[in-house]
Amino acid sequence: LIPSFTVLTSQVLRNAVHVEEAEVEKCVRDVMKAKRIEQSNTGFKSILHMSLMQISGYKKLYREVENLRKVPYDSDNEEHEELLIELWDLLMPQEPLRGRVSKQWCDIGFQGDDPKTDFRGMGLLGLVNLVYLSRHHPSEARRILARSNHPRLGYSYAIVGINLTEMAYSLLKSGALKPHLYNVVLGLPRMEHFHQFYCYLVYEFDKFWFEENPESIMHFNQYREKFHEKIKRLLLDWNVVLTLQ
């Protein structure tokens, strides 16, 4: 049986939301043909092209983030080690690291004397996020680190940072980040945009933590979930933009 025009049109539209970047141009032409829209309608064509690029880019970004998350931290990998040392140098520029394995790592919020064990859940993604924040917002990163050492409201800076990487990752995976990313970039969202959202989470969580004034760090999971729900509510607004200015 030959499919009807309506079935063909529906198939073209369904395929459109799964298009890869290289096929966007062809997909735009196919959709316009299926909907009987003149190819000379440049306004419709440009809007559709941008929308499909955003959809394609979101999926590509998720794959890139997922691939980085799957890379385990390897202390025998020179690039991994350089990133880790860079994190120390950015956060503690006045205090030299006395050894690769050192209790000093606890000063920036790792659990023990070798940070590699703390990256198990989020892999290299957790470290790359922490380094990005310190590279691009050094004063904010150091200020938040200093606040994390508060005598009563203190928390483990690096561990919480990795926890927020998991939050950013889960929001990306679920599709909840689409409104934010579609508003931030009129085209292909890139890894940089994911890192920028992470920076926003770190900044806002620190503010949230002190505003909530929890009794102790033992209540972290409770307040972490409360913060998570707050971010998810913000992302329900299709005009939302969550960036650290």
TrEMBL record:
<dbReference type="InterPro" id="IPR050868">
    <property type="entry name" value="ELMO_domain-containing"/>
</dbReference>
<dbReference type="GO" id="GO:0016020">
    <property type="term" value="C:membrane"/>
</dbReference>
<feature type="domain" description="ELMO">
    <location>
        <begin position="79"/>
        <end position="235"/>
    </location>
</feature>
<dbReference type="Pfam" id="PF04727">
    <property type="entry name" value="ELMO_CED12"/>
</dbReference>
<dbReference type="GO" id="GO:0005096">
    <property type="term" value="F:GTPase activator activity"/>
</dbReference>
<protein>
    <submittedName>
        <fullName>ELMO domain-containing protein 2</fullName>
    </submittedName>
</protein>
<dbReference type="InterPro" id="IPR006816">
    <property type="entry name" value="ELMO_dom"/>
</dbReference>
